[in-house]
Amino acid sequence: MPWGHETSADGALPAFAKRPTRKQSRHRQFVNSGPAVAFMNKSFDQPAQTAPGNSPGVPPDDARARNFDAQPGIVLGQNQYYAQRSGKDGAQPPPVQISNFVMNVVRTERFIDQSDPVVRRTVRLTADTGYSVETTANPEEICNKNAFRKFILSKGNFHFYGSDADVERIIALTFKADGREINAKHIAGLEPDTGHWIFQNGCVGSDGKIYRPDSAGVVAIGGKSYKLEHSDLDGKAVRAPKLCFDSTVNGDDLLRSVMLNTGTLWGPQTELAWGWMLAALWRTNWLAEAGNFPLLFIAGPRALGKNTFMRIAMRLYGVESNPISLNGLTDTSIYTVNNRFCNIPVWLDEFKNDIKVTVREALKGNYDGSDQVRGTLDQFVTKTRRHRTGMVITGESRPDDSALDSRSVTPALVQQANYELLRETELQAKGLSTFLVMLLPKVRSVWTPIYDGYRVLYEGWKQKGALQSRACENYAKACATLNVLLPDAARQGRFREWLVQRVEMNAETNIIAEMLRSLPYLVQVRKLDVPYRVEAGSRRLHVCAAFLVNAYCDQNREQRKPKTDELIRLGKDGGLLIPSHTDKPMKAYVDENTDGQKTKVQQRCFIFDGTNPIVAEVIEGLQPEGR
Predict the structure, then answer these.
(1) How many C-beta neighbours within 10 Å does residue 602 have?
(2) pLDDT digits (tens, 9 = 90+) for 196-215
(3) Backbone angles phi, psi at 430, to 5 degrees
(4) What is the rounded distance in angstroms from the CA atom of residue 431 to the CA atom of residue 523?
């Protein structure tokens, strides 16, 4: 009778009729064989290793063995793991060797810069022969038996003979005896939560003291350990900044000398760039108190020496790496680049006005530190991208986008060929971070006088209508910082002169200024119906927005008509609109023909400040009686 059909009187299969499965047959043959027992107690290429006074497969005595209460199934021998199996009839057989090595945690690194901190453990594998190796144990490499075997074999002559349950027990008891936890960071510079300034070769604590790393690059501050990684948040290698902690040179004198030399090489407005570089040290404070911090644009033709100047300037923060090209960045990767440092400027090169719109918008967002929600390239998830530091941008041309231009400080560089002075300045700049080493211990105490000086400058400069713009805020930040750190009585006059030049240059390229200048021609020569009126007392000029935009674009055959909100922002930046002009401006009643009948219709209007020279000139050109 075939198997499975022979039954007893009660219909059950007899014991001899129960055919074992193929897996059970192989298991019985393997377990009952002598070679199998020897195989389980030795490595693949060497004889079994046992502790003194113990037979193969039996763990050492109590003096050399430890049974973990948390994991009763695992016994630790001399650089070997043993497993306690269940016996028949309640009997407990001797423990069985399941490895020729043991694993210990060397250190645990918690990446605190990420919103969801990831833990990375460094372990040491020690074989029963005495050979050991340190390596990183990633979760996917130790999650099951097969992955664990591949992991240990890739590190050397390490073998494991146990089950998935044994792997879990070993991992549990190993990580229970965890090593020292280190706060690992990808972002150099300021640690906002603690106030520490972390660099590659040292740290300035919130207490103003300098702490140096050990041989493993770990710095101990106040009972916690910190380590700066050599990669960014995406794992790309980064050369972290290093400061001249051991220099004995006076930092103030060195910085003054370098600033004087760069002024001789590239013109006096390099002082504006140095002011921005120093003000960037308090970028998080500027965002919290003033709500914004500008970008630094270094624009000019080829061979001007833009990159040479910036390499010298970046030495102030101990940064020696080359700039990052804007051409290869996306709306996602630009945030990764911007998150390499905190309050240490990031240098981007090869700016062109045809860059991607998303990248351009990201640059604008750096001005007020606005976060953006962006997706990731490898996962179908989104995450919030932050602006942690200021940006230095170099290129052959200034931005033609007035909104981006108004959010930046743009010193005018003029090259003066002097190769001997240039070489001397480059040598001096190698120790320029000495000034930062002297400044960082008192970085908190000097913020209050810097901000107070900024408020005085800003309020004073904006009294003149032509200076009511973002440029006024930007220049005041740079000037106030230099006034506190490197006092100079004549600096305020120089910065105000450069500010006036900047505002006048912006007015020449401001689209709403062009529209306003064309108003007398559109009304008087072209006889177009553009409703306007001039207030007799305040000399404010009211112009209907839609009529002005349509008439100007039709006259100049512009394909794209700017939006009213965009023009309002440009008017504010150029000091053309009155200070009370908000994003919801006043509306005026305008006559409109509807089916042959005149009706009063509300239209949005621009209200220009008559004290602005451009507006005053336009009012003079218009008819004395407004509509």
Answers:
(1) 10
(2) 999 999 999 999 899 999 98
(3) -60, -30
(4) 63
**Mean local confidence (pLDDT), 480-486:** 96
Please, what is the average pLDDT of the chain? 80
Residue 51 CB contacts under 8 Å (≥ 6 apart), including other chains: 59, 60, 64, 77, 78, 80
Query: Does the pLDDT at position 377 exceed 90?
Result: no
Rg (CA), the chain: 36
pLDDT at 600: 54
For the chain, give the longest Cα–Cα distance. Answer: 124
Tokens of 566: 């965009």
Phi, psi of 601 (to 5 degrees): -125, 135
CA 253 to each of CA 161, 243, 432, 449: distance values in angstroms, whole numbers, following the listed order = 68, 17, 10, 22
291 three-state secondary structure: coil
Question: What's the pLDDT at 382?
Answer: 58
List helix spans (H) across 69-144: none
- What is the tens place of the pLDDT at every residue in 220-244? 998 889 998 887 666 677 788 999 9
The DSSP output letter for 16 is G
Edge-first strand order for the sheet with 81-83 is 66-67, 74-76, 81-83, 96-97
Neighbours of 157 (CB within 10 A): 15
The tokens for 230 are: 């050599």
∠269-270-273 over CA atoms, to 5°? Answer: 105
The C-alpha atoms of residue 123 and residue 496 are separated, in whole angstroms, by 60
Structure tokens at 357: 């719109």
Give the C-alpha separation, 514 to 531, whole Å.
17
- Cβ neighbours for 183, distance < 8 A, ≥ 6 positions apart: 109, 110, 112, 224, 225, 226, 227
CA distances from 87 to 84, 91, 93, 95, 427 (A): 9, 5, 6, 11, 77
| Contact call for residues 84 and 75 (beta carbons, < 8 A) | yes
Closest listed residue to residue 386, CA positions, set 373, 377, 399, 403: 373
Rounded Cα distance, 532 and 514, in Å: 16
Give Cα separations from 611 to 261, 500, 584, 587, 616 (angstroms). 40, 15, 22, 21, 6
Residue in this structure with the two tokens 């006034």, named with its chain if needed: 483
Q: Which residue has the tokens 């003079």?
A: 620
What angle separates helix 491-509 from helix 270-279, to the nearest 10 degrees? Answer: 100
Most confident of the ranges 276-290, 353-367, 410-424, 576-590: 276-290
Question: Exposed (0-12), middle (13-18) or buried (19+): which is 4, by Cβ within 10 Å?
Answer: exposed
For residue 275, the surrounding DSSP H or E stretch is: helix 270-279
- What confidence tier does 375 reach under pLDDT thresholds 50, 70, 90? low
| Residues 204 and 196: beta-carbon distance below 8 Å | yes
Contact 237, 255 (CB under 8 A): no
Task: Judge whether 580 and 558 are in contact, CB under 8 Å.
Answer: no
d(CA 43, CA 152) in angstroms, rounded, equals 13
DSSP states of 443-485: TTTTHHHHHHHHHHHHHHHTTSGGG-SHHHHHHHHHHHHHHHH
DSSP H or E run through 351 = strand 346-351
Vertex 472 angle, CA 466 and 478, to 5°: 155
Please give the structure tokens belonging to residue 8.
């007893």
The C-alpha angle 122, 189, 363, rounded to 5 degrees, equals 115
Q: Which of 300-336 are b and which e, b meaning 16 or more Cβ less than 10 Å from the residue's Cβ?
A: beeebbbebbbbbbbbbbbbeeebbebeebebbbbbb
Q: What are phi and psi of 106, to 5 degrees?
A: -85, -50
224, 182 contact by CB (below 8 A): no
